[in-house]
Amino acid sequence: MSPDLDLARPDGPLHRLARRPDAWAWPDWAYAGPDGTFGNRFDDPHSDFRVLYASSRRLTCFLETLARFRPDPHVVAFEVAPDPRDAEFPTLPPGHVPADWTAKRAVGTLEVDWPFADIGTHRSLAHLREALGADLVRHRIDDLDGAAIRMSAPRALTQEISRLVYERGDAAGVRYLSRLGDDGVSWAIHEPADLPDGETRGLRRDDPDLREALELFGLTLVDDDG
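Now predict its structure.
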C-alpha cells in the first residue's frame, strides 16, 4: 500500500498581505493569465478554483510579496551602469519599492482550524512521487523531493500537486514552507473555503514587519514626495 498525504492544522492565526480593501477577497478571474492561473505556486491548472495565500508569520507575507523588488544578482555582481537614454522615461532603480505600494495594500488576520495537506513530510513526498510520476517525467524532474516542491519553476508541477489535493476533498488546501526560508510556514487555501470573518487593516509605512523585510532584502521604500 502506498503512503498517504499527511495533514496538518495551523497552530495560530494566519496572516495575508494583499491589495485593499479586503485582504481575504478571492482574486478576480478577470486577472487570470492565458493559462487560466494567476501565475502562483499552487494555483489550479484547470481553472476550477482560486487560491488565497497566507502565512503563519506576518514577516513571511512581506518577504514573499517584496521578493520581486530585489535587484537581479547578475546586475549587482557586474555593477551594470544605467543607460543615460533611460532618463527620458525614468523608472525606479533596482531595489526600490514605489511610494504608493503601501497605500494600495492591507494586512489580514484569520483564525481557522482546517486540515491542510502537509506536502513536505516524508510520507507526503513518497505519496506524491508515486501519484505524479508521469508529471515528473514530463517536467524533466529527476526526483520529487523537498527541493523539487520549492523550486520557482516549473510551477506547473506544484500546481498539479495542488490539484491532486483539491480532488481528494479531505483538505482545505496545502501547507508548505516558504522558498525564502525554512522558518516561513505558508498555507494555500482552496476555494470554496467558507472563510470566517477575518480582520483587515491598512498597511502603514512604519509597520515593523515591513521594515524588517526591507532591511533583509536591502530594499528602499521610496518617500511619498519622490
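The two ends are 62 Å apart (CA to CA).
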